[in-house]
Structure to design on (298 residues):
């Protein structure tokens, strides 16, 4: 039995739909969401990147969570993506109920009877921008990661309040967000500029990740820890550097068609900058920064 009640109206406002109401665009053979600010696609290649990013962050953080959790009963993952983090947490805490929430169901929902699927894991469709479909104080740990490209700058304070609202007193909220794309030579600078331009047109501020600790404090959380995590990029940094470089280029490859379709630049200029960025990363040392923040609800 899942003890979570949906708030009146929130389920209808926040839930996505697999039957056609959720709109998609096809650009260059990639599938993008038409009715959300998110610029990255929702397809198999992006699923692979999200899983890869999960393994990279888990490696850097030496685990899946930072706050001092003590036998949480209920865990929520907002913007779960592939559901990888949620299912791993369900195995780490087999006595906890773990809810994964996103506007589109992860691929694992196609086989809900898969015996490898943790029995204490459940997916719920919803959109944090329209309100989480749960009553207040339902979860001991509320987690949200890498939604910078999906949350308009003006919506961040409200999102943080919503995460705090569904967290129980004494429970924790954790956020992880990337910083703007690293810059270096002409290729990397062009890519960073184009993704910033495309983001701003959709109300997204790529520098907002630096403020996640501030947003948690504004939402009323206490005992906040916030820090920057610098992940070295390139083969010189070993395994983690290769992972960070792979994730960097996957982001720009996956955003390519959307940025070009918005008229920010041409396909020829984009591809030339991408090739130049490969050379620049081979020749220099760069850092891919992320921000981590977590706080406790009093």
């Amino acid at each position: 039995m899942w003890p979570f009640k949906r708030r009146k109206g929130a389920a209808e406002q926040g839930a996505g739909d697999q039957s056609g109401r959720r709109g998609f665009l096809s650009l260059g053979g990639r599938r993008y969401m038409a009715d959300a600010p998110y610029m990255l696609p929702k397809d198999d290649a992006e699923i692979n990147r999200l899983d890869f990013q999960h393994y990279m962050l888990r490696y850097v953080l030496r685990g899946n969570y930072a706050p001092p959790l003590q036998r949480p009963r209920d865990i929520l993952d907002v913007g779960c993506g592939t559901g990888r983090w949620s299912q791993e947490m369900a195995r780490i805490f087999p006595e906890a109920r773990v809810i994964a929430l996103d506007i589109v169901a992860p691929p694992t929902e196609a086989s809900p009877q898969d015996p490898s699927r943790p029995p204490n894991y459940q997916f719920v469709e919803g959109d944090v921008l329209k309100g989480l479909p749960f009553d207040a104080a339902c979860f001991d740990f509320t987690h949200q990661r890498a939604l910078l490209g999906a949350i308009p700058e003006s919506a961040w304070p409200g999102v943080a309040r919503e995460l705090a609202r569904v967290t129980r007193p004494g429970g924790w909220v954790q956020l992880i967000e990337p910083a703007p794309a690293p810059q270096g030579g002409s290729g990397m600078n062009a890519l960073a500029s184009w993704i910033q331009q495309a983001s701003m047109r959709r109300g997204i501020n790529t520098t907002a990740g630096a403020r996640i600790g501030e947003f948690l404090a504004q939402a009323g959380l206490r005992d906040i820890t916030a820090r920057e995590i610098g992940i070295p990029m390139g083969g010189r940094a070993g395994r983690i550097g290769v992972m960070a470089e792979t994730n960097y280029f996957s982001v720009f490859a996956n955003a390519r068609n959307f940025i070009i379709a918005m008229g920010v630049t041409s396909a020829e200029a984009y591809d030339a900058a991408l090739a130049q960025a490969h050379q620049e990363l081979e020749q220099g040392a760069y850092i891919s920064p992320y921000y981590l923040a977590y706080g406790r609800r009093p």
User: Anything to note?
Assistant: The radius of gyration is 19 Å. DSSP finds eight helices and nine strands in the chain.
